[in-house]
Amino acid sequence: MTAAPPPPPGPPPGPPNPAQAVAVALLNLSGLGLGYVLLKQWAFAALCWAATVALLVVALPADPDGIPLGVLVAYGVLLLAVAADGARRGLRATPAALEAPGRRALVLPVAIALLAVIPGGGTFAYGAARDEAIEQQLMDTLTTADGLVKRAEGQSFTSVEVTYNSVLATYQDLATKHADSRAAKLVPDRLAAYYASVSAPYTKKDYCAAVPGLKHLRTLPDKVDRGLLGGLVGKADEPLAESWFQCGTTTIGNAGQETSSGEYLNDLMKTFPQSPFTQKIEPTLREGLRTREKAVAGAPCDAVTEVRRFGTTVGMLPSETYAGLGADTKRVIQRGDFGCGLDRFKKKEFSEAATAMTDYAKTYPDSPQAAQARNVAIAAEIAEETPAAGNKVPSGATVDGSGMVMVISNDGPGEVELLYTGPVTGRLTIPSCAKCTSYPTLLVPVGQKVKPCSGPSSKYPKRTLTLPPGNYQMLQKRVGTGSSAGMKKPSNAKIESGYSYTNCLYVTSGF
Q: In this structure, what is the dihedral angle of CA atoms 369, 371, 376, 377, given to the nearest 10 degrees?
């Protein structure tokens, strides 16, 4: 069996063709493997297509951060490799498509043109797409910030202050780091909306709630470029002055707001000394004091409490300007304290009346009403045991040495304080009787009577009263000792003209 003859040898390779090698290399650099297509190297051309498709999958849609660097490097290395391989293969091979001499002359210019159109055009198009992605991202950032402002509106500023500051930082970043973007051009309008949101309480005349936000708006030039603020610079000054004034003057006297109202007014005077609202503080507070003084006449206890809070705030203001108002406020408080004590006495609130009038006499010892206050306190204390003592408000009259004589002796252990009220009111203290004891009542023989103060007169401590004629209510308050307990004992006395009286105070016990 004879072997088949070997195939005839292929045509010898043509002479080197550097221009063709360059053309094939440039065609491969297009990323479409066109050099391999020209050489009919379909497997390698398919490799180039697969790599380009993978790049497109990673790159599209365009991301603001661009294509990952590793992907670009890998793709670049691949292009260089296929360009070098194409050059090597195209150096001697003569593709059938280029056998005509005229076509060979066109390969290199076409390769250069394709290289400019495909990779260059693709790079340009991707750059534009990426720029648009960045613009959209910035617009999304702006929209998010706008949403935060919208959600914060209507809440107390202090609870959302962090949110507002975050939004400001976003606006500032957009306008300065991305000044040419569409989002940056919208920032001035957004700042105007921001101002409207923060100052919404002032627009609604909720002056106290408006203060924190307006203080914040005054600091905008410290946080955002002035060029972005435009007419917003200084726009919050007058609203803040008005809010401080309105809140300070309308809350003065309110429970729990003594300090805050004073702070509002002091802030106004320090920050805007020439503001018309600063000039209105003193006359407005004076009118407020006059209104409260009228209220003292009607409901003194409630009114004086408010005036006292009013005075606390006035005391926080500069003394050189508000000393006169402070003195007038103290005068109204004094009048209200006395009126409150009388009002409680008239309403039969005797314990409260006694406390109020005792405090008044101690606080205002030089007051013309101090004597009457002491007497009302005495009558109120007696009325707690004998309600009839509260039927008439006592005057300031006290014993003056004229009237009927009443000698009061203490035949018992413990010092005695005797309170009395009637035509005159007062109190006196009788020292303890050192040798006196209580009188037993259950063991006294039948037919005998307890006879206090029956011993020698010198034995018993005494005090003498001269009382105008009339009916008196009295209250004996004996201090407890080691052998006897403290006690209170009410009694009545009728003083008539032409008589003298004795009164023996003693203690009884059941055994």
A: 110
Beta-bridge mates of residue 407? 464, 502
Q: What are phi and psi of 492, to 5 degrees?
A: -120, 155
**What is the pLDDT at residue 458?**
82
| Vertex 156: Cα angle to 153 and 161 (nearest 5) | 80
Q: Positive or negative CA dihedral for 257, 259, 260, 262?
A: positive
Rounded CA-CA distance 421/439 in Å is 28
The predicted structure's pLDDT at residue 344? 96
Establish whether the linkage from the previous residue to 64 is cis, with ω within 30° of 0: no
Residue among 103, 86, 71, 114 at smallest CA distance from 25: 86
Determine the Cα–Cα distance for residues 496 and 149; give it in Å rounded to an integer. Answer: 86
State the DSSP code for 364. -
pTM for the structure as a whole: 0.71
Q: Which of 475, 474, 471 is nearest to 495 (CA)?
A: 471
Residues in the chain, overall count: 511
Reduce the secondary structure of 159-206 to three states and give it as a string: HHHHHHHHHHHHHHHHHHHCCCCHHHHHHHHHHHHHHHHHCHHHHCCC
Instruction: Tell me how far the alpha carbon of residue 23 is from its chain's centroid.
Output: 76
Please give the structure tokens belonging to residue 22: 């360059």
The secondary structure of residue 63, as a DSSP letter, is -
For residue 126, the model assigns a pLDDT of 56
8 Å CB contact between 201 and 213:
yes
Query: Contact 353/404 with Cβ under 8 angstroms?
Result: no
432/415 Cα distance (integer angstroms): 4
Burial pattern 155-183, b for ≥16 Cβ within 10 A else e, equals eebeebeebbeebbebbbebbeebeebeb
| 501 φ, ψ (degrees, to nearest 5) | -135, 150
Torsion angle of alpha carbons 370, 371, 375, 381, nearest 10°?
A: 40
DSSP string, 394-407: --S----S-SEEEE
What share of residues in the chain are helix, strand, coil (percent, to 5)? 60, 10, 30
**Whether 319 contacts 282, CB under 8 Å:** no
pLDDT lower than 50: segments of the chain:
1, 62, 97, 100, 511
